[in-house]
Amino acid sequence: MKTSIRWLVVALILSLAPGAWLKQAAAVTDQEFRALQQQMQQQAGEIQDLKKGRAEDQQEIQRLKEKMGATDQKAEEAQKTATETAAKVQPVGPVPSEEAAATRNLTISGFADVQYQKNEGEHGSFFLAHFNPVLLFRAGDKVLAEAEMEMGVTPEGGTEMNLEYAQIDYLFNDYVTFIAGRFTLPIGVVREKLDAMWINKLPIQPLPEADATAILPENDIGVQARGALHVCDPVVLTYSLYLVNGPGDDGAGGVVFDKGVDSNKDPSWGGRLALFYPWEASHDIEVGVSGQTGPWSDDGELLWSAFALDGALHLTQYAEFRGEYIKTWQETAGGPTMDRDGWWVQAAYKLAGLNLELPMVNNLEAVFRYSGVSLPTGHANQYALGLIYHVTNTLLVKGAYAFGQSNTVDADGNSLDRNQLTLQFVYGF
Amino acid sequence: MNRIRLFSTLAGIAAISTVVSIALADTGEKPAKKKRTGAELYAINCNRCHAERYPTERTDAQWKTIMLHMRVRAQLPADDTKAIVKYLQENN
Fold it and tell me: Rounded CA gap, A199 and A285, in Å?
């Protein structure tokens, strides 16, 4: 009975529900319906406007794309043109400095040295200090004015300054250079090429070239033509031909060199001819002959003449051999011709060639030199053993012990029959 | 007599210099020869008298001046000198 009643209530509720919904739907008025219809029409219009705007945006986007494409094409063309132009342009080298571009240049080179010397039987002393600047003034490619001054200390404690040379060089062409001025005479090779203290292998000069026993003049004033040319590669021929004031009379019947003026009406002339054969680097031989002749007496009737034969040999970069023979003749008034002879040979070896791999030893160079002179007053021989320590390429410490044998004296009156120790500290710049 | 000797000496110097310079300057085409590098020529010509000088010691202009001096003093051939200058300037 209860179950029947329950089902009856459910059936009643279900039958009443659609009725209630229909009653609520029927509650929308016409006014509300029109409002809704108007709203829908308005929204449809807005949608239409949006569609139209979208179409315009699409057109704008397309236009911008086309414009961007044209711009890209222009950029590519510009890049291509720039690349082609850059390829045509030659690479630009380093811009020359103002100094390098200048046609005129002043350069200073030279050397400075100080010596300590001890003669046998005397006390040692620091006895020489030199500063030799070489001034080089280049005007263009063909003109060079050059001079070397020697500033030093005299044995009396004073200061002296000497002009070693002062000359103007004019490079006429590849084969001839003209020189005018006071120049180093090309008799032999010592004065012209080996005189600088940082180049000379020993702190002392060979006897025929040393100041107190020299038999050759060092410098003179005049004109010169010189040059070099390959005669058959790799052989080089060098020549010098000059005209100078020449020696003069010292007032006591002797010859004096480089008086600064011509003592008589005739100049002296001389020259050097040499062949240099380098078959490879550090392997070469050079042989030269040179000489000078001219009057020395005031009347110009008496001649002073000189002849020199020089040679150099390099067998490796470590071994060097040099030598020179010199002979001079001096005519005398009513007497026999006075002959003077001089000679020297030298061997030098850099110990680096021994491959001992010892830094101190590798910087050492051993030197031996024998030199001699035969003078009207007697003769002198000197055997010198030397050692060079190369601190750098041009900073050197040199030492030499010379054994002297002689029966005469030098120009200063000092005996040559004595031994001598010389130390030198020199810098070439 | 002395005047004749002087003039003959001067004439000899002038004649030799002129003949050598003009003849050699006008040879035109030079004979073919083995070309040595500037470094080789530097080793051959400079080291035979003095220790090596490093290219970095001087500027381009200074090397040009110094090599002009060395061409005169050491009597270096002109073409060798130019090659050595180039080597020094390229390595300083």
Answer: 18
| Residue positions counted in chain B | 92
Indicate the SS3 state at residue A398. strand
In the block, tokens 């690479």 appear at A91
Q: How many CA atoms lie within 13 A of A44 on its CB side?
A: 6
What's the pLDDT tens digit per position in A240-290?
Answer: 999 999 999 988 878 999 888 888 889 999 999 999 999 998 999 999 999
| Other beta carbons within 10 Å of A13 | 8
A175 closest CB neighbour out of B9, B25, B61: B25
Model pLDDT, residue A186: 97
Q: Which residue shows structure tokens 């025929």?
A: A208
A236 in contact with B at a CB cutoff of 8 Å? yes
More confident residue, A24 or A227: A227
Residue A283 pairs in a beta bridge with A280
DSSP assignment string, A301-317:
-SEEEEEEEEEEEESSS
Q: Whole-angstrom Cα distance, residue A48 to residue A5?
A: 60
Quote the CA–CA distance of A215 and A349 in Å, as a whole number: 28
pLDDT of residue A419: 96
Which of A108, A243, A397 would you mutate first to test chain B, the one with the most B CBs within 10 A?
A: A243
> Of A394, A382, A398, A387, whose CA–CA distance to A349 is shortest?
A387
Give pLDDT tens digits for B57-66: 999 999 999 9
| Strand bridging mode A104-119 / A125-139 | antiparallel
Residue holding tokens 């000379």? Answer: A200
A316 touches chain B (CB under 8 A): no
Q: In chain B, which residue's Cα lies nearest the Cα of A189? A: B74
Q: Using the predicted structure, report yes or no on whether residue A306 has a pLDDT greater than 90.
A: yes
Average pLDDT (B6-33) is: 52
Query: Interface pTM (ipTM) of the complex?
Result: 0.75
Q: Are A370 and A345 in contact (CB under 8 A)?
A: yes
What is d(CA A302, CA A337) in angstroms, rounded to the nearest whole number?
Answer: 10
Q: Given CA atoms B63, A134, A324, A223 in this order, what sign does their dihedral have? A: positive
Q: Could you give the CA distance from residue A143 to residue A225 in angstroms, rounded to a whole number?
A: 14
